[in-house]
Design brief:
- The chain folds into two domains: 5-236, 4-Layer Sandwich (Metallo-beta-lactamase, Chain A); 239-318.
- Helices cover 37% and strands 19% of the residues.
- The protein contains ten helices and 13 strands.
- The strands form two sheets. It has a seven-stranded mixed sheet with strand order 1-2-3-4-5-6-7, covered by helices on one side. Strands 8-9-10-11-12-13 form a six-stranded mixed sheet, with no helix packed on it.
- Helix 5 (106-116) crosses helix 6, helix 8 crosses helix 10 and helix 9 crosses helix 10.
- The structure holds zinc ion.
- Zinc ion (ZN) is lined by residues 73, 75-76, 179, 228-229.
Amino acid sequence: MKREYSQIAEGIVRVECGLYRPGLVACYLLRSGDQLAFIDTGTAHTVPTLLHLLQSLGCRPEQVDYVIPTHVHLDHAGGVGDLMRACPGAKLVVHPKGAPHLIDPQRLEAGAKTVYGEEAFLRDFGALQPVPADRVIAAEDGQTLRLGDRVLRIFHTPGHANHHICIFDEQTAGLFSGDSLGVSYKVLAGARGPWLFAPTTPVAFDPEAWERTIDRLMALEPETLYLTHYGPFAPSPASIQGLRLSIRAFAEIALAEEKLPVQGRRARLEAAVATYLLGLAEAQGCSLSESHIRDWLAVDILLNAQGLEVWLARRAKRAGQSPSAGAPPQPVESP
Ligand SMILES: [Zn+2]
């Protein structure tokens, strides 16, 4: 297989999606007999790689039964429209709240263009294609799908996004967790092993719901987490506790802002998020230089700060205060 793919377990292939740099975004192909499913898709630019993978396995696009984005952020679902066009027998399985945005992706695309600018959006993500509504399964919490011998159980998992689902493969006790059980870049693993942190990406960070989601998912006793960012991860009590602590720490970083003027908020949040993540890398024994770690985490630092800012604005609105003067434009969703 080419470097973009690696078989990581029986019938599970990890695909490098090619967004920004290798090691940042993965998606997965599941196989059971002749039947196939993609979990997450990367961006529209990833789709040729996915089709090439099918070819290299001696499979046809017609064998793909399901395309299952864990949520409709574009690093996970940007390629859905193109992939569904290429796989005529596939059903799209998505959270009911995400379904309308993939059936008519205009708002999603407009939101992403607000965040990235049109040129960078098209360069990095590519245009979004609509999916016919009659090919969409709006997945209910607890719903099961059959893929050959495999039973896939779907869970609604709010916290990172309110349109997030996770997919549990009963055969291998593997959990395709999207972003619900955090992010762990292999390159930042230190002497004390790999570590997880919470991506608080706009626009629906919800720390309390997120901790309940973690309880629920860990009660399944997954043996392996298949993270979108990045790859298989063996969960330990310490790593899951680290994920919880990061959710609490990010919430605290944001709440400290409620006493401060809105002026300068974004920069302060970015600085605090960066300091926290650098501290985690160091505590974990990561041997990379500080500038190298910062470089790896640059997008996460930016998106976490943006997501916390949006969360603060939502809290202020709920509390009946005037919407924060410094609140960023709120796209429907951004990656
Ligand atoms: Zn993501």
